[in-house]
Amino acid sequence: MTPEPNHVPPKPTPPPLPTVPTLPTAPAAAMPPRGPASPAPGGPHGPEPPGGPPAALARLDALYARPFPERREHTATGTSGPGFHMARLWASGPLWDVDPADAAAARDQCVEELAALVALVSARHGEPVVHDLAEALERSAMGLPVPPPLELLSALVPRVHAWPDDGRWIAVGAGRPEFGQPCQVVGVIAEGPLPGGG
Predict the structure, then answer these.
(1) Run of H or E residues at 114
(2) Directed axis angle between helix 100-125 and helix 53-65, to 10°?
(3) Burial of 185 by CB count in 10 Å (0-12 exposed, 13-18 middle, 19+ buried)?
(4) pLDDT tens for residues 83-137?
């Protein structure tokens, strides 16, 4: 008889592992909605229209931060000297050979730019003193002494809105453009008593 092969009993199947319950996954926190992007600081530069009073106010702040020079200096936008800075803060385009209606619109815009800038500076320093520069212009024309920068300022604007500021004064005014010249808003930072402040 042929011997039967050794019978190997099958290995018992191990019991299934217990199922481990999983924790529910928390939903990812949603990012808060983003608001409108903040405008970039600063503003356009140069004598062409810079886009409104905020840029003009930034220019005035820049003037305030600059030290006064020891001697008079002239730049493309103004003049500085011992104890003062004076600069153009806003200007229209040139008015040569433009339609009279466009020239009138530029002058109106200049008035609006000045009013908006006065409101911004007044929010910081209170109501301004409005100082007429007719006397300074007349004295300068007669060769009589006029303290700087009023002798320069009176040739550019008929009056200024001025604010005292701890031994200094801040002033802005809208220019009286010569024929064909841009309308402009001028700003001043100067040491000394406030002109027209009594």
Answers:
(1) helix 100-125
(2) 50
(3) buried
(4) 999 999 998 877 777 778 888 888 888 899 999 999 999 999 999 999 999 999 9
Determine the Cα–Cα distance for residues 186 and 87; give it in Å rounded to an integer.
6
Between CA 158 and CA 155 the distance in angstroms is 8
Q: Are strands 84-91 and 129-132 parallel, antiparallel or unpaired?
A: unpaired
Take residue 88 and report the two structure tokens written for it. 């153009």
Question: Is the distance from CB of 182 to CB of 92 less than 8 angstroms?
Answer: yes
**Local confidence band at 9 (pLDDT 50, 70, 90 cut-offs):** low
d(CA 105, CA 100): 9
In the sheet that 168-174 helps form, which strands lie side by side, from edge to edge?
73-74, 78-81, 84-91, 184-191, 168-174, 159-165, 129-132
CA-to-CA distance for 68 and 57, rounded, in angstroms? 19
Q: Are 160 and 172 in contact, with CB atoms under 8 Å apart?
A: yes
Q: Helices (H), strands (E): how many in the chain? A: 4, 7
Percentage of residues of the chain with pLDDT beyond 90? 51
Element (H, E) at 132: strand 129-132
* Location of structure tokens 């600069």: 87
For the chain, give every domain's residue range: 53-191
**Global pTM value:** 0.70
